[in-house]
Amino acid sequence: MVLLRYGPVLAVVLLAGVTASPVAGDTASSQPGPAMEFRVNRQRAAAVKDAFKIAWDGYYKYAFPKDQLNPQTNDGANTRNGWGASAVDALSTAIVMEDKDIVKQIIDYVPKINFNQTTDSVSLFETTIRYLGGLLAGYDLLEGPFSHLSSDKNAKAALLKQAKNLADDLSFAFNTPTGIPSNTLILAEQSLGGDTTNGLATIGTLVLEWVHLSDLLGDKKYGALAEKAESYLLKPKPGIGEPFPGLLGTNVYLANGSFADSFGGWVGGDDSYYEYLIKMWAYDSSRFGLYKDRWIAAADSTIKYLASNPSSRPDLTFLAVYNGQKLIYESEHLACFAGGNFILGGLVLGEKKYTDFGIKLTTACHETYTGTATGIGPEIFDWIPSTCKNTGPQAPPTYEPPAYEPPSYVKRSPKLSASPEASPDAYNRIANDSPPPATLTVVTPPSTSTPPSTPPAKPDPCALPTLYNDQTAFYNKTGFYITDANYDLRPEVVESIYYAYRVTGDPKYQEWAWNAFLAINSTTRVGSGYSQVKNVNVKGGGGFTNNQESFFFAELMKYLYLIHSEDGMWQVNYKGRNEYVYNTEAHPFKVAGKALPTY
């Protein structure tokens, strides 16, 4: 029987067909504030926990202490330096799920990790958000509201000790002329990987973890490293790096701190820089006021310049990316975190316009799920703007950026998987002198052919590119067309749904999350765990890639669980305050300053 591959609670839930209706055992808890009510659905929370345990048991049996499980072949792979990425990433989720056995397995393992030893180059960004973030969150939670899960004081202390050891091993990354770190490190040689630039996200997604480590240790040196690097982003040098107020380019030169390009958006490679601006304010408003101001500038420019409505579904709102002031009407699953970030900004600033805009973005990203054959959204999608005219693309914004000559390459954060099926035709809707967007690494070779005597006719910028004509009916219905159909167990859509629920208390968002869980569970479950699938718009997902990423534990399972589980101080908007702030890997940190009230 196929349900035997699921855990007992999850099998019961699936057999019962639990969908939109509350089940026996639901409770509702009223929170202070304007008519806020959060409903606990214990059966759904238990079903998500069951899925987490299936994935963990497969990993622990076949892959531990390697970094991730290959669920189809029942073996493991070291994709994050062989330090047990899935174990460290899973810790904070196992804690909030109150699974003592898994928590013990992980905290018993942590002291054995030797962060000095690896045969691969190290990503400062990925190591910070997964390992450093996971260790710090585990320490906060086990020393705080979940102290009852372990009485082993030495094991708890080892979490912070290992976080310090890791940061000490990584600190040489900042030994550059500017203090902007190199993202690629060779630990054995204590040498940098030869990079001349680093990315917006890979620079700007260090400060929360490194500052929090300093605060816990009472040693400012760690946070000071990340804050110095961040200073080049908070006050960018004049030039091409800020095409819109608060919205920046992607690559920054290590030698002088200036920007190398004007590509950007709320997409992979840039995304979590913007995410951390408002989260630093939530972490400690007494120290990080400038971060808040820069988030407001970026948020206002995003609403004014980047918001775009598809021609076939003007009721939806997506965020375009940009090359200078020219917009590219493409987005991705990674960018769907933006809805939750705007909602959080509105929540802690008391600005309804940000919350309302975040709800719009979340709704549109939810539509990328409901529109596909699997009920899961694609990696990358495009649209035609509703303002498009046959005479040309959308009129450029009135804001005039500095003159800009684009480079011949684009470098993206390693958090975004490279996509060989990128969409070159999609850029027919922008000016001919604009290079492809930042999802590609492009080198233009010299031409050896003779140009035709009659130039080919330009395609209609308001029609789907020829390559995607077969999606015309799909686009007319959904408001987007798919240019990369894979799904990598990403959490961003569910993440924003979680924030929407915690700010509104509207149970429809629980239903959205539950339906996403059912779709993900039925489509990606394979072998001893869960895997990335190749095509979300084909029933069954079009095949598996035998890859269970560590962020499946840290992010996806956590948000799916929290939206249905008991309330607590680790939840967003708990009793009108935010006692914890989540890093970009969904690891919750206890705030250092006064917990900001929510509005």
UniProtKB/TrEMBL annotation:
Keywords (A to Z) from UniProt: Calcium, Disulfide bond, Glycoprotein, Glycosidase, Hydrolase, Metal-binding, Signal
Top-level taxon of the source organism: Eukaryota
Question: Which region ranges are annotated with the description Disordered?
Answer: 392-462
Has UniProt tagged this entry with the keyword Manganese? no
Please name the catalytic residues of this protein: E126, D271, E379, E492
Tell me which EC number(s) this protein carries: 3.2.1.-
Query: Spans of biased composition, class Pro residues?
Result: 394-405, 448-459
Co-factor(s): Ca(2+)
Single GO BP term: ERAD pathway
Disulfide bonding pattern of the chain: C336-C365
Which Pfam family is one of this chain's hits? Answer: Glyco_hydro_47
Report which residue ranges the record marks as coiled coil. Answer: none
Its protein name is alpha-1,2-Mannosidase
The record lists the organism as: Microthyrium microscopicum
The uppermost taxa in this organism's lineage are: Eukaryota, Fungi, Dikarya, Ascomycota, Pezizomycotina
